[in-house]
Amino acid sequence: METPRKKNPKERPGGRVLADALVAQGIDHVFAVPGESYLDVLDGLYAVSKSLHLVTCRFEAGAVNMAEAYGKLKGRPAAAFVTRGPGACHAAIGVHIAQQDSTPMLLFVGQIPFAETDRESFQEVDYRRMFQPLAKWVTQIDDAARIPEIVAHAVDVATTGRPGPVVIALSEEMQKQLVSVPDIGPASVSRPHPDPAAMAKFIELLKGSRKPLAILGGSGWGETGRADIGRFLAAFNIPTTVAFRRQSLYDGTHETYVGDLGVGSDPALVAKVAESDLILALGTRLGEAVSQGYTLFDLAGGVPIVHVYPEASEIGRVFRPALGITTDLAAFAALAAKLKPGPSRWVDWTKELRALRMKSYAVPKYSGPLNIAQVMRDLEGLLEPDAILTCDAGNFATWPPRFMNFSDGQRFIGPTNGAMGYGVPSAIGAKIAFPDRQVVGFVGDGGFLMTGQEIATAFHHGVAPIILVFNNQMYGTIRMYQERAFPGRVSGTSLTNPDFSKFIDAFGGHGEVVTETQGFAPAFERAVASGRPAVIELRMNPEQITSRATIADLRAAAGKPAAKPKRATHAGRVGKPGQGRAAKR
Fold this sequence. Notes:
alpha/beta, about 15% strand
């Protein structure tokens, strides 16, 4: 409902107008690293502290990742504030995550005084040029009277069509400017619904299929849309995959769930996609990870694709569909859920794909005292029904989706752009968004030492996520590619790490080190019982580079003899375990 306009609003400084504009738009959380370039906004946020919670963070990348995770889970944007120059540069990675993950988010950047533009003033950057390829919209406010208008439009842009990040620079003197301007509330706008003719064509294509496959992805579904599309897919018995790191969209325990398509997917599932005679691309862009490097589908549309997406420009961008439906995803799901299924012609096909999923899900006997697959299975049984799991990037990130089935009430999120440093801040952002839900973050040792200091933010704001650090002494993903291209020539990918349990101890949290499989469950239970932010370090076997291959396997495939891996000693040691770089980067 639109906020009533005041006939004669009192004069307010721009910093206060901005704070009030955020409140009027329903923004209730700001994640920030303070800077002198937006002191007046900080004062404005002080004035609205009963309506808008300010989360003080330790690093701009962490702050923006928290805001991104908040928006991803809530389906509506949070705001991040950073200072000019270096602060904006640090924040850019979170903007890139929000763009490629289609997450609604607002980033505000303090700016130099407008009068000093183009003099290379202290920390001056042209943010329109800097963020143009990374954000959905970039602008700057130089007139305080336009703050309500621009903030309202920014929220609209961030949340409609394909959601994404909006960046707004705030010139310094504008924040001090006194203006008399009314607040503007959200607009009531109906979302686009599917064309009835398109829905009829959709049903016709589905009825003619014998081996359909649904790929569920993207953002903007909402809880109702997620439930509706789940009912449709289950009722029609359609084998359903989720796109890269989109496990939150479907019940992994359901008999129609057949796995994920992305980095680390089951090769048997990938091979079966070629047998499908109808691809239902629901909410996914069919990007590089899902399409296995744009090789999985025929660009000319030899196998029919039904592409359902909220942004028309994305439909047919790479793969030409037999049918494209531009629609709000929740609106499509609502109509799909009302469709009446007939006799299924693909019962055996669904069972075949489900059997592949269960075979991949089975726990192998890995060498070494700590079987990460069994740890994931144990964790699955220990999680609360509405637990939220966040994930960093790296080879370790393929273990949870393979060996865990996330149930209907649980959520699993991670950066589809493969950005390291996401795991810890996103877990904190998730816990701030849902303080009463259990939150567990997955991160490698490489990613943890990028943004792990944000655990201080958890203490400062009284939330207690549990962080699992997968420690294998290396940037694992890069080491994997290195071994494939240059077997045995290890260069730049080994890591030296601290004792992560002592790291959290220094903050007053709960720390555990797990070296054997049977030690994990009691360690996790102690972490939960502590009620404090916790870190559980999993000391992995560095030789097991992925859940499907060892370093020896990679070297053998490259035609090189396997060398015995060097093991490091722990605590005060050289070369302690760590984990990999971003997916395929």
